[in-house]
Amino acid sequence: MRGVRCTRDFGVGEAIVAVVGAVVRTGLLAAAFGFVGACAGANGGGATAGSTATAGSTATAGSTMDATSTATTTPADLGQRGPMASDFELPLLAGGTMSLSQHLGTVVLLDFWSTSCDPCLREMPELVKLYKEKKAQGFELLAISSDGPDTVSQVTAIAREKNMIFPVLLDQDTEVLDCYNPKGQLPFTVLVDRRGSVVLRRAGYQPGDEESMRSLVAAIDKALAEK
Predict the structure, then answer these.
(1) Hey, CA dihedral for 176, 161, 93, 110, is it positive or negative?
(2) Residue 152 pLDDT > 60
(3) Where do the domains of the chain lie?
(4) Which pick of 32, 119, 145, 217 has the fewest CB atoms within 10 Å?
(5) What is the chain's alpha carbon radius of gyration, rounded to the nearest angstrom?
């Protein structure tokens, strides 16, 4: 088992955490970043700031899907801060581990994807471009692969092919994905501001959907402007 096991029955900061392989970091480290443990607040009771940006082409973790449907996007309310993001620690493709809480004071985009999700792969060049443009401003992108044991061996090749120059994390049991998005939609992105608050969630990707991308870029720019 690799990932985090979380309980759905919690209050903010009052979660029961079972650590399995990778660790949910509660206590002082998470508290310093303002995160809550065991995925509390990531998906329960209004997990989206404003409205959720939802694109029409989505896959489900473990499935394969072509990006052929028409995307529909609802912009998020950029003036409203959402719940605290939940901390996690996962293995890195390059070796070692990485936690969300170690990015204290950084605007972080979590991108949940898989090698069998065509919309995920179509979106990747846009994310690489975005990362190059924003990284120097205090922006980080964590690409969280939901590939299981049968396909995780393909992640390295895809990461090279798509020039994924940002950290690639392995969520083989999809437990972090389940915490942030129980429906398992892919691609799925979560934007976390410098204070550790979720300010935007976005499901799906459709090539040419400029409105959805503009909403994402606007949310990132707003989060970067807040010190």
Answers:
(1) negative
(2) yes
(3) 3-225
(4) 32
(5) 16
Tokens representing 124 are 């990747």
CA 60 vs CA 65, 181, 192: distances in Å: 8, 11, 22
Does the structural domain 3-225 have CATH classification 3.40.30.10? yes
* 123-132: Cβ within 8 A, 24+ apart: 123/187, 123/205, 124/162, 124/164, 125/162, 125/163, 126/213, 127/166, 128/162, 128/163, 128/164, 128/165, 128/166, 130/216, 130/217, 130/220, 131/165, 131/166, 132/165
Q: Label residue 210 by pLDDT band (50, 70, 90).
A: confident
How far is it, in rounded angstroms, from Cα 78 to Cα 104?
21
Other C-beta atoms within 10 Å of 160: how many?
Answer: 9
Report d(CA 136, CA 38) in Å as an integer: 31
- This prediction has a pTM of 0.74
User: Is residue 162's pLDDT more than 60?
Assistant: yes
Check whether 179 has a pLDDT greater than 80: yes
How many residues are listed for the chain in this entry? 227
Measured between alpha carbons, how far apart are the two ends of the chain, in Å?
Answer: 38
Query: Are the C-beta atoms of residues 126 and 213 closer than 8 Å to each other?
Result: yes
Q: Is 179 left (phi over 0), alpha (psi -120 to 50) or beta?
A: alpha
